[in-house]
């Protein structure tokens, strides 16, 4: 944790390290990267593995070691993906999925954080909610699809409701734990300096909970994308989930894989945006965003 | 005048027999005085401070400030914790920490900013206003906590072993800083420590407590001239006598 981070150094922040004891620190030894003569970012190693696996896939498929009807070569999938992007078909379906996922995430994330934080801050309320929450929380969200169909029909409302339900729980759990993050010194400090109870909740307990809440929301966002795609497969006329299932049933594996890749890209893209927002929200933390 | 009368605090947990931390502590702190409170570790010094500033209700006895009983933290008092890092709000800069506790203070934004900046200057942190607490060393964090207490405008500073977790050199600097600022700004100080030398060095009066349930073992006036000096004062006959007397007292009880 950030607490006590700089405890032992009489100096300041890492970016302003003072030469201790009058000694000038020696130049850092040449790194392995330096010896290799490349300043390759650490991600490059991961990229090589991915490329290798894709080439392996291509080869196995071309050599018919994998059933080409179920696993077409990567190049064929890539061509299909590109065509679907150019035609706008996949972009439109992805847009629907993103909209539903974000709406579900918004509803479920806000609801889960609000409920969890309230349960954490007001122990009486938390105890009153406990049984109900522990009954609902392990319920598989897709089991609610049939109920949702009765109320909401097929499509947007249903996807939002089911995804919202699913992603509320990681947010809830994180917020309950987060509400207990502010230590006794911080709480007492707020009281000593005459802050009201509500000020203490809003300006002390809430910001202290923020790192955990952000971690919970990040999990929740991934859950929202997954659940929306699942719900689309089961009960929506469109969206990436529906697109993938239709392609599979029509015996068009290239289309199907293109849809699956699109789901991956949507998930990764939303995660990247969220991580960037989180870094801004937690800019006060040392090494913000590295956890 | 801050008066502590027959302060008693016992804790009972889940039906187990009550532990008595404070067994009727009485003493008073005159306005503008620097009073050190020493006692063996675990004798309830922190509990006493928490009761004095109204964070905790005593089981019996009372604390009065100018005749008014304290039941909730009053605006006249600021409490400085041993663990400064844990008491500074990590999401605010040092300046932000100070401005935050001035939320309810009267005055314009500009005036409060001025108050905050001058408090930082008083503790030598003027150049670190925009740093976050984790970017400062332990000693600087303690200075920041002190600046926050000063800016708050409390006439009484309560300090709970504030220098217990900094290195010896920093500790001497902080002692002299506190003594200087308190005198200059006419603050009343109640300073809790387990370190007898520190207690004597800083105080006008030392209150020594017995092991729990704590009572007042002795109240000793310290007849040393101000400002004190880390070398000269500590070699002074009167310093050594007071130190020896308290040592004997704490060993006996």
From TrEMBL, chain B:
InterPro entries: AAA+_ATPase, ABC_transporter-like_ATP-bd, ABC_transporter-like_CS, ABC_transporter_ATP-bind, P-loop_NTPase. It holds the Pfam family ABC_tran. Keywords: ATP-binding, Nucleotide-binding, Transport. One of its GO terms (molecular function) is ATP binding. Residues 2-236 form the ABC transporter domain. This is ATP-binding cassette domain-containing protein.
